[in-house]
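User: Fold both of these, please.

Assistant: Here is the first one.
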Amino acid sequence: MTTYGTILIPVPLEQATPVLREVCPAGYATPAGPRFCLVHPDRSVDENNVFALAGPISAELGAPVLAAFQYDGDRLELEVWRDGVRAHRYDSWPDRDDEAANNAPVGANPAAFLDFAAGPVDSHRLASALADTPIDAEDKDVDGDPGYVWAQALHWDVLRALSHPNQAIRRAQWDYYHMRGAPQALSEALDSTDLVVLGTAERPF
């Protein structure tokens, strides 16, 4: 499964763009509904990963931001930053490399994510997702192991519980490399005015 990193910001893209152009050395930004936007940084650039950018963006915008990094379908990390300071960290599989360790998520506190709600919150789905306890049968491991089969589905359920529409959730799982590598598909999914090119990144279409 593919890896991706994005930052969700509860500020409209047009309002956030000047700060994003200043802070992000390379990447893209897209709208995620009328009140939210997303940053898709180029992770190959030093100090340009989602966790390094989240602090400066939150400080400059004066708004909380939610940085998400999903690794290879196995692990979802989420960080909430406010005023340049990390306020909360979630890790769905903190001991991924230790077979003998407890695999329970850390930071599974639904209240930490309420600033990122786009509408009414499905509290049960949010708590279940963060606890790595999928509600929907198709997200459960067919071998009977607890937890989500894929971390993308966990991330999807977190954002779904926060009332984000499917289109915005799909964009929240777009990595910079996916976007740059599939210009035709990207142009079909986005209007040219919906894509903001940041720093040294090249426009994909």
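And the second sequence with its predicted structure:
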Amino acid sequence: MQQSSSLPEQNSQIDKTPALLTTIQHLREQLWLESSLNQLQCRLNDCLLSASTQMSQTRPPEAEIFQIVVNLLHKALSGSRVQCAVGIALFQPQETVGQVCYVSASPSSQTLTLEVRSTKGTKLRLRLHAAIRFEDVQQMERQKPASAWPLVEDSSGVKGWLIIATANSNSNCEPLNPSLNELRSQLINKTVEYCDRTLAQLKQIQSWQQHSEQLASFNQELERTNQLKNQFLANTSHEIRTPLSSIIGFTHLLLAQGYEPEKQRHQEYLHIIQSSGKHLLGLINDILDLSKIEANQMEVQWDVVDVPILCRNVLALVKEKAANKGLKLRLEIDPDIKNLVADPLRLKQMLLNLLFNAVKFTNLGSVGLRVTTQDLYLRFTIWDTGIGISPENQALLFRPYSQIANSASSSNEGTGLGLVVTKQLAEIHGGSLELESEVNRGSCFTILLPLKPTGKVLEAIEVKAAKDLEISQDLNNYSASLAESGDVISSSKQVLLVEDDLANAELMRIYLGRLGYQVTCVKNAFEMWTILSQMQPAIILIDVSLPDANGLNLVQQLRENSQYQNIPIIAQTAMAMKGDRETCLAAGVNDYISKPLDLQLLGSMVAKYS
């Protein structure tokens, strides 16, 4: 049976009974409605099927859905007595002016006109890319009959509106009867419902597809990780067996021939055994360090590090390897850089990893270490004039178990874990690792560490302070018992810290602050005398070496002043030779603590005298 695709015509012939004509007309109308909706549903289902089976499409599925709705609704509503144009306007979030993005083909040469009565009879032409105001479509929705219907918002908040412009082809014809108007209204409302439901289903399909892509990407990453671990195990096995073979082989030769220290050949055997053992130890340490970091079990001992001394010691360890390749070593440290709160062993490990790599990948020229400050960070830059690293290799450099080829060396020793460990150690310190490199122009690796304790460093100091708080409380109880016996003990928690080194001052301020003390920090003698005129501290912590005065001379001046002579003073200094303690006590301090500071001991001393 042939189905009608346009609005059914009114039957003007009066050759049958009115009841029969009414029934036939009603059936035709219902057939037209069901046929139009079925055709729309089939096309929308085809669109959803296409979207679910094709991961990439030339045209967005939302656009396909909107165009299907516009075309089929236009086809259904157009008849010999009615002309119409159907369009969809889209409004971006928070925008009051939208754009007509989809329009059906108009049966006439001119675009149909919409009248909006709320804005003084404004007339809008329904054409593609035409601008339209939000208040106009709202008014068209309220008009009788309506000419605009809201659609569901998409996931990005874009709001769609279905717009229909109609016009009679013959102005002398009578208007459509009420039943056909009702039928037309039903078709439009059902079309809006089908469109909204299809868009919701499309959103669900796209969500499933995104989840599927994520799973596929995750599976690929697992496969890649598994492959890298297999490569790592194979490489590690080779790297471990190689020095072990040397150790076992040359030990066997020495045992078989009998060790004779005066033989040059035997001395060479021992050097090979020692070198192989050191290489094996370094390899095992890298593997263990990475395992501890990944398991979050890396033990870090925070301390105040003398940066210039540590850097010179590190370069001394690299000096021999650099000399063997004819490379020059350079060290540059800003003169105002002194101390840093860090784990000295791990900082040394990070610098050695990068310096050994620089020497390894450099055949001619120089390798250097430059230490500078930038904002609130200390920058350790290890540079070289070596072969450089290509951009594609830079992307692989910090992946666990990855190793790039070394054209500057005949062998690629190691397992490629050094840079991974270095990067993660820098992050444990609250910093980061940066890389700048150009092929045949050398490389620059920069470790950035915060000058002030932050992140895990700060957390570790606070945890230590919390553990030491019990000792401090015990000492406070001891002080209370002394007070009962008649000794004058200050109950104030105010501490004046005279320290010119930022790292040391910040470390003590944080630690003592967690123990409940109010720490005021000053950097020199002038600031000390200024702040003493404004407060009466319970205890003074003073560095022996200050930029504008000798700390012990300041102590003597304090003791000669009746206002300050009873305030307990603790000297902290790098003086640690025999007799230094007695010198400090003779100057008038109550106690003495040497650097690097033992925080628990410091807390005990402050609790004892405050």
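Confidence is low (pLDDT under 50) at residues 169-174, 485-491.
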